[in-house]
Design brief:
Short-chain dehydrogenase; Rossmann fold; alpha/beta; oxidoreductase activity; 46% helix; globular
């Protein structure tokens, strides 16, 4: 079994993925900022290798990821965060925080590991189905994930001639500490172990785009393909229904 590296491994989907791969005996590099949670994962066995660093600091990324032995063949870049804008009142500091983690952190991670890339490697980037349609309060999160989606898909085009596969993950609502903070209905939410299983299966089958849960993400994709005027009408209805 080839080694795998996972960012955002101390919480949510990343943590579940790390546990699942560790239980299978696979060598797993687990990356995050929380030293205590990294050590909890490391206690699963010597094949779990903790790397503590801050993805928003490029130098920290490069130092932590410079020498990896054995070199991972699969790179799951999963770290991210979510904050919401209320009532359309712009908060530039909030936008910057979300983009710094979700977009700049992703770019830092890729720059930190790309010197390891070789033909046959698989880069897996976790986005969100929120990137498919404009949703209330998601000015920061949705826009950041739209950037992640575009970056991932474009990188897939550029790396394909080198024999490097790039997959983009589009989760719907997954029960994690991140969604536990939400104060609105989350239809068709799935458990984190289901999400991790969907990602593992998508990686194993070599899918370019990994969507789950299937029904919810299919609905959002259809709605996202509608003319913007219709999407705008639906979004306004969501706001009205909440009020």
């Amino acid at each position: 079994m080839n080694p795998i590296l996972i960012t955002g491994a101390t919480s949510g989907i990343g943590q579940q993925l790390a546990k699942d791969y560790a239980e299978s005996g696979q060598t797993v590099y687990v990356c995050g900022r929380n030293a205590e949670k990294l050590q909890e994962l490391a206690s699963l066995g010597s094949h779990v290798k903790p790397l503590q660093f801050d993805l928003t600091d490029l130098n920290s990324c490069k130092e932590a990821l410079q020498d990896l032995d054995p070199v991972p063949h699969t790179w799951v870049l999963n770290a991210g965060d979510c904050e919401y804008i209320d009532d359309g009142v712009m908060d530039a500091a909030l936008i910057k925080r979300v983009f710094t983690i979700n977009v700049i952190g992703l770019a830092n991670a890729i720059e930190g590991v790309q010197h390891h890339f070789t033909a046959g490697h698989h880069l897996v980037i976790v986005g969100s189905i929120a990137s498919e349609m404009a949703l209330p309060r998601a000015e920061a999160y949705g826009a950041s994930k739209a950037a992640v989606s575009y970056l991932s898909r474009t990188l897939g085009v550029d790396l394909a001639p080198k024999g490097i596969k790039v997959s983009t993950v589009f989760p719907g609502f997954v029960k994690t500490p991140l969604t536990d903070k939400n104060d609105f209905p989350m239809p068709m939410m799935i458990e984190v172990d289901e999400a991790a299983k969907a990602i593992r299966e998508g990686i194993e089958s070599g899918k370019t785009n990994i969507y789950f849960p299937k029904r919810f993400t299919w609905i959002l994709r259809i709605l996202g393909s509608l003319p913007y005027s219709m999407q705008h009408h639906l979004a306004k209805k969501l706001i009205k229904d909440k009020q």
